[in-house]
Specification:
This protein is mostly helical and about 160 residues long. About 65% of the residues lie in helices and about 10% in strands. Helix 1 packs antiparallel against helix 2, helix 2 crosses helix 4 and helix 3 packs parallel to helix 4. The longest helix has about 45 residues.
Length: about 160
């Protein structure tokens, strides 16, 4: 009987965490909508060759990744389902490369070793990006004095 009560209590705690995560994710998503919207408006007013446009494109990409993370939180809170799609993993890694370089810092050499013959996968893009980011951050943390990390798609 006691074990059943403990399981119920644990279940209620997890449900509360899920509700909290869903509420925060919903509010965060509203903020991201404003950030991404104004970033897109600012980019529309700039010529392609303007160096500020490149910075705004990076802000937009980061906003899109943050929105993807928000979808994962909403999925965790059971308020939204994941959105799997057909992905080329090489493309995902290539699109993340600038951001990953900033995350690891200058004392680590990041090398993308892509596999052109790699088939596509059906997955939620945000989850795949989170996996790649976690792998790179873990590699960074294991090299506090610097070094080199190779990202191989076969390992995913």
């Amino acid at each position: 009987m006691r074990q059943t009560e403990e399981q119920l209590l644990q279940s209620q705690k997890l449900e509360s965490v899920g509700q909290l995560a869903g509420g925060i994710a919903h509010d965060f998503n509203n903020l991201l909508t404003v950030i991404n919207g104004f970033t897109a408006l600012a980019m529309n007013d700039l010529p392609r060759e303007d160096p500020v446009r490149n910075n705004l494109e990076e802000v937009k990409k980061a906003g899109d990744r943050a929105a993807s993370l928000t979808r994962q939180l909403l999925a965790f809170s059971r308020k939204q389902v994941l959105q799997p799609e057909i992905l080329n993993l090489d493309s995902v890694v290539t699109e993340m490369e600038k951001m990953l370089r900033r995350v690891i810092g200058e004392n680590i050499d990041l090398r993308a070793v892509l596999e052109p013959k790699l088939g596509s996968v059906k997955a939620d893009p945000g989850q795949i990006e989170q996996i790649v980011l976690n792998l790179v951050v873990n590699a960074r943390d294991s090299m506090p004095s610097g070094g080199c990390t190779n990202r191989r798609m076969r390992g995913l």
